[in-house]
Amino acid sequence: MTSPSGWTPVDVSAVVCTMNSIASIEACLQSLRDAGVGEIIVVDASSTDGTRAVADRLAHVVLEDTGIGLGNARNLGIGATSKPLILNMGSDNVLPQRQLEVMIEELEEGNYSGVSAQTRIEGDSYPSKGLNAWRRGRFRPGPVSVIGTPTLFRGDLLRTHPYDAQRVFSDDSELCERWTAEIGATFAISHAEVLEQGKTSWNEMRIRARMYGISDQDVYSRGVSAGWNLKRRAASLAHPFRADFITPITHLPVREAIEAAPFLAAFTCLRYVNWAQMSWSRRSGN
Cis peptide leading into 248, omega within 30 of 0? Predict the structure, then answer.
């Protein structure tokens, strides 16, 4: 499988941001090597668990994260890339064989600015099944306005229009919205599938909900400061309910939707709770 431009995995620079990722980093980086990625760049946030040693062994370049946030860490890695395409991978992602070729082909065929892959968790626990149902219902292949990690971007665009260095978690949505407004960028979820390691417990669900809640609060507060009207504010407030409950329920088979409903409801509620807690914390100055 080759793209219309002739690009292959050797034309890809992969950027992986890490912090104490010893449980997953070796499988992540080895999968990139096995896929034939031309350049692997790790940005490490002073890991103390052996992550850095694995990165030194398997990556082509290892950089030190300054600790400002994920947006800045990604920009450090992006600034060191040299290939036509840039793949952002989570340190807990594993790239199966031939899936990067699918991403490259669909990026080119759709003339997109960037595409993401679908992520799947291996495991039979209820949280694992719930997260997979959430993803199947929410993140369906085709054109979308925002894509999330793992993402494949055209390198020239990402190097000239990098992430907001001040963003801690909400970097993907900010970048996609900015690109759309400024350069008319288009995005899609590809048919490629990437595995995610270790996300099989309720605690992992709480961690994900916390990250989303912090992102929600950040996006909303910035929007209000920018002068959002009441309609736009209401849309932002309704987004977690619509995105994490209504959309998955609507697009899943009936039986799977019924089984996943308690998980989706819990996840949505946790997202709102973390949004509220972050808002309270910032208002109180804690």
Answer: no
